[in-house]
Specification:
Layout: H1 4-7, H2 12-33, H3 41-60, H4 71-89, H5 94-98, H6 100-134, H7 152-165, H8 170-193, H9 204-220, H10 234-264
Helix pairs in contact: 2-3, 2-6, 2-8, 3-4, 3-6, 4-6, 7-8, 7-10, 8-9, 8-10, 9-10
Length: 274
Amino acid sequence: MVPRVLQRRSSWPSSFVTGLIGWNGFAIIAPLAVGYKGALGELFVAGTLAALAQVLLLRSAFFALRMDRSLVAGGIWGGLTAALLILVERIWIDVVAQHTLMALATGIYVGIPVGAFLSYFYKDDREIESQAAESGVTLADVDYGRDGHWLDPFVYGAVCYLIAFFPARVELAICAATVGSIVGVVAAGVSHFVLSRWNNAVWTIPVAIGGGAVVGLVSGLLFRHYDDLLWMPHLAVGSLAGVLTFASTASVGRMLGLKEQAEQHTPQPPGANR
């Protein structure tokens, strides 16, 4: 069960989790994309410090930067603060100093969506809470509905990739779980924003599985230098992992969709659920 403070996506703890997932995810994925097969510790240190610093900066100046009003403002300030933090980190973190241009590009690529998501989560949570308040529901009792499960896809993806890759070494396990968590979010986005148009009907699950095979195949390329540690070729393992991730996420999406449909036919205060 996800703690309630994390179900509220605009809470401070949720903001830090958002930053940590984004920064650490691509601190691993970007090096994998260019064939990196070295130690991961320094990458995590750089990603974690950047995430904590960026979220602290953006949340502290949130209203002054008008991030409460505009996703574009969130993205712009996210990119600018990310670039600044990378330039600071290069002074005393070797891996950043040795690959400054790549680190800068990756940081900006991560920073923009982190800033935009902070803005989006704030605006969306306020809308949910406003609708609930109009119906007399207190903030402590607001049901964030499907949006309250925003962290679940990271877990589904990480677990599915660990199952598929069956890693024999710790570094491979970390890489698989990291890539899987990001693929899980992609799968959740497809389920929530695309498949939901058909109410996550049962036929959407095999469609999602087909998409997962393609996404997983592409993600398998990140592990091309780990073939000696894999039980199948990297493309095959990646495709299997994608299938498992999209299948599980689409199945959960269907269950949540059925729950929402049932709630719509159950008398309740408007705005209490979403």
